[in-house]
């Protein structure tokens, strides 16, 4: 392959491809949480977390080639308000790896958590600064903009176990406020401007990520106590899951693209939150919901993995990404 063909090929690789890492490694964490609750073999979760690390290494290498060979394509993504939020998937991946490493090596978990959380903070303020410049049409707002605030709210879930209690509360508060702000902006677009297009629709699932991650971080900070606010976060998550499932008929008619990976992380986050809720509240919580969300998350990750591998073999997969 000539240098020009390689450059064209790597320039098509989107940063949103890191969403695959979130789906796979997040599913591993959900399976790990399910082991004591559902009596499932714990090694399943560990294998999935390790698979997520391998996928991250492959995508990071490919995207590194893009930065080296086609830097202008990377800058175009970073300067696009509709795509910049997907850069949050990179530090989010490190935060999930930190959670995966915590029971095995606390020093490694601390390093991954510190890098992931620090980069997430920087990205969040960069995006806020861009939007505060004003003059942006409502229709360019997408649910992907929830990703940086979701990443900040995820920080306390692992940070609390690493000893960062006050920092965890600060992160939770800032992430929650920004999520509320962006949530108003999303419904302002949906109610008064235009609905999500078919290309944008898979991102609707991302709306379930902030309350799911906020719930897990809040009960960690609240010493595993389920109070009224924890219930508010959990059932808010279920609302967004239901709103996403209500569009199932539209999803069924859509052609597969890398945007489908947007379904996976919110679903695995919801499954993980359900496991946490069940563990904290005891036998009063319906186990069937935990099983349903875990099965749905596993099915989505499996389907997206198979279709992505098929697309890579056939070619042209990256060019379907806007």
Would you give an account of this structure?
This protein has 322 residues and is mainly α. It has one domain (3-320): Voltage-dependent anion channel (Glycosyltransferase). The protein has helices at residues 3-11, 19-38, 43-69, 71-79, 89-101, 106-131, 146-159, 165-192, 209-221, 228-245, 248-253, 264-281, 287-314. The longest helix has 28 residues, at 165-192. It is globular. The model has no long low-confidence stretch (mean pLDDT 90).
Features:
322 residues; mainly alpha; Glycosyltransferase
Shape: globular
Order of helices and strands: HHHHHHHHHHHHH
User: Could you say how many structural domains there are in total?
Assistant: 1
Roughly what is the average pLDDT, rounded to an integer?
90
Largest sheet: none
CATH superfamily, by name, is Voltage-dependent anion channel
What's the total number of strands?
A: 0
Structural class: mainly alpha
CATH architecture: Alpha/alpha barrel
SS summary, helix count: 13
**Could you say what the CATH topology is called?**
Glycosyltransferase
Low-confidence stretches: none
Roughly what percent helix?
over 70%
